[in-house]
Amino acid sequence: MNASPTEAVPALRASEARIYARACSAGAVTVNDLEVETGLPGEEIRAAVRQLRTLRLLREADQSESRLIPVSPDSAKLQLLDPMLHEVRRLQDQAEAMRQTFDGLVHVYEEAASDRLKRKGIEVLQERSGVRWAVNSMAASATDEVLTSHPGGARPPEVLHESVGRSRDLLERGVGIRTLYQHSAHFDVGTAAYVEHFTALGTQVRTLADGFPQLMIFDRERAILPLRDQPDGAMIVTDPSIVDFTVAAFERAWAAASSFPLEYNRRQVMETSEDVKLSIMRLLVNGEDDKRIADRLGLSLRTCQRHISQIMKRIGARSRIHAGYLISQYDLLNNPSARTDAPAERGAGAHPDRPCPTGGHAVELG
């Protein structure tokens, strides 16, 4: 059972340990001595000696090939480990050299990829300052219309303040502006005041519960889209096919949206509330948690949870999972009469034509 110095070293067999102990006791031994003193078969002794010599625990005595003397374990260990450690150091040096080579090529790849994207009509901006410069530059050169959509509810005051001059300049030059917000923006004083001011100047503003992306489109030729997982970055798109797709997405959302209410209108408030609740119900059926629903609809977590509580109470759901089941089972997303016209004496989640087994209140989400 021989092993080279670079292979795993097995544990000593009993015969090998016995022969090594005898050599240490005698100071020097021969194979013949070992046969006599141990009583082991000659072939087993010779195999054990070969293994002990491989492990550097036995060596030939000077000027005598037949006599074997023991070597201390520390000395044997150094003899075996030195080549291994040398090989480890060599591999470490090789790995470091390879790492430096590859690291040196990263910027080459990234610059080439950036140039390639630019040639294909996409430019990636990593920093907020670059995005701000691009927005201002494109707005300054726009001649026909700017389309913007801003999911996430109310817009931060600093963002509204920054866009005041840009929007006023566009409108004064006769450039149209259409903007989409989420319904939750109705209830933010700053956003509502901004909309009222610029609607009077010609901006068109609509709102939708959910289902539209963040984007800015200039003259249907250039678009600015967000980067995934990089909130400070964005991409500039000039590829005609991608821009056309982006415009189509905006127009679909615009057609489904309703005008931003500048004055209190009870009917519109009820319709907006219904739209928000429908979106919440849809996300409940999809298994989204409260925080994810709130983020999707631009609501505070507390407001979102209040809506969910109202929905569960009105359909008689005992839990969020039960609510998702009732919404799906009785087709409440696609059947307005089941949501608003179900008689109170029917059970929770009741369909007008079917009794509901759960008991509770009628479904009214207006």
Structure description:
- With 366 residues, this protein is an alpha+beta fold.
- The protein is 54% helix and 14% strand.
- The strands form 2 sheets. The chain has an 8-stranded mixed sheet with strand order 3-9-8-7-4-5-6-10, sandwiched between helices.
- Helix 1 (14-26) crosses helix 3, helix 2 packs across helix 3 (42-54) and helix 10 (290-297) packs across helix 11 (301-315).
Sequence-ordered SSE layout with sheet pairings:
Elements: H1 14-26, H2 31-38, H3 42-54, E1 58-61, E2 64-70, H4 73-119, E3 122-125, H5 128-141, E4 145-150, H6 157-172, E5 176-182, H7 189-201, E6 204-208, E7 215-218, E8 222-227, E9 230-237, H8 240-256, E10 258-259, H9 266-285, H10 290-297, H11 301-315, H12 320-329, H13 336-340
Parallel strand pairs: 4-5, 5-6
Antiparallel strand pairs: 1-2, 3-9, 4-7, 6-10, 7-8, 8-9
Helix pairs in contact: 1-3, 2-3, 6-7, 9-12, 10-11, 11-12
Pattern of helices and strands: HHHEEHEHEHEHEEEEHEHHHHH
Structural class: alpha+beta
Measure the end-to-end span. 84 Å
- Described by the principal axes of the CA atoms, the overall outline is elongated
The DSSP helix count reads 13
Question: What's the arrangement of strands in the largest beta sheet?
Answer: 3-9-8-7-4-5-6-10
**Assembly context of the chains:** single chain
**Number of DSSP strands?**
10
Query: What's the story with the biggest beta sheet?
Result: 8 strands, mixed
Bin the strand percentage.
5-15%
Query: How much helicity do the residues have?
Result: 40-55%
Average predicted confidence as pLDDT: 80
Radius of gyration: 39 Å
Q: Ranges with pLDDT <50 over ≥5 residues?
A: 340-366
